[in-house]
Amino acid sequence: xxxxxxxxxxxxxxVTLPETKEVFSPATGEKVGIVPNGGREVTEQxxxxxxxxxxTWSVLxxxxxxxxxxxWADRILKNSLELAEILSxxxxxxxxxxxxxxxxxxxxxYWYAEEAxxxxxxxxxxxxxxxxxxxxRQPVGVAALITPWNFPAAMVTxxxxxxxxxxxxxxxxxxxxxxxIAIALFQHLMDTGIPAGVxxxxxxxxxxxxxxxxxxxxVRKISFTGSTGVGKELMRKAADQVKRISLELGGNAPVxxxxxxxxxxAADAIVANKxxxxxxxxxxxxxxxxxQEAADELTEKIVERVRRLKxxxxxxxxxxxGPLIDGSELRKVESLIEDAREKGAHILCGGxxxxxxxxxxGHYYAPTVLNQVNQEMRLVHEEIFxxxxxxxxxxxxxxxxxxxxxxxxxxxxxxxxxxVARVYRMSExxxxxxxxxxxxxxxxxxxxxxxxxxxxxxxxxxxxxLEEFLNIKYVSLNLGE
Length: 481
What we know:
Largest sheet: 7 strands, mixed
Oligomer: single chain
Strand content: 15-25%
Structural class: alpha/beta
Distance between the termini: 71 Å
């Protein structure tokens, strides 16, 4: 596998470089591959390639663009197990979970293959007898797509598919920790025969690649998923040319459980969400707010389920959690737990790094539940991004809404209740871009995924995701007297 991914994709061709970068498994610490360590020069080549290809791709009939996308998804599905193994090797999530991600990635491609044909314009009544007002939606141009390491396959397709469907050409920069799955997915895209230059991929020096994409006026759109800090820096630099920018950033998602809830349903959903991908999910639950009347019952059910979770290497059967992505993330989780302990939190299960023989070379942390959590603890205010479930209690709707909204983040929130009136009150009052009720699942191809406040701007999914890659042009036509 080592040399298999040692290339970029520029102008429809594989490009190798003398300088390379190693990719390591977070599960074992072993090297699993090498990729090119590119910078400014190859990024400029990719921009030139995308810019030239845009002239023909942007005017290709939507039905033809749709065929390429359909073919891409078909090829990915036929090779889903192999792709899942690549994803697990570099990212660490269980192969079962990786395969679900690969298959979910195809859902977005299939959706946008159809959405490409629904890029409708508009005819607006004129202000005069012979005036016709038309609105066209046209592709933005060259789009730079910067994807994260936590869902390194899904985020490639969630960004690439709508961009191509809209008629944009793209330059993809995958996360440094997980570049191999992106390269493999692009191999299947190239195998469709998509015209040269429409889709390009560069790996390497993140800051150098990013600065090149931001400073080149031929790049008209930036789509980024990652940390809030990096997103703010990209936004500042994009302002120099007033580039279109979409940002899907950090979160501090609460789940709120009222005493009328189905506690088994809530416990199952919370554990499934909180410990997916070892807790490394942007819209994953950060804090569990349970009404004080139901706190003991729900806490017992959550702890019971968490204790059954199996942690281990990604290829091991029946594993629920793999490792954290790297040592830095592991140390951050340890620091948050230590801070919580010192300030009075009670560890109900977990609360430690796993260091037994099969874990000793990886970045493993035991799935953790804690209560007696208070507002002074860092994990209440910081995004945990790890397998840690803090439980807090509340007394009233007004109180919990105030506490949940007292954050710079606003990505997602989850509510469990059987009271329909409360569903509306909570959904309308929570300052987030998304709310799920009696469920903790939000990512589907037809719905607008994204946040408000410092959790970002723009949306992925549905027709909203296509609009992120389109300009609106108004044409006023005078037919004469």
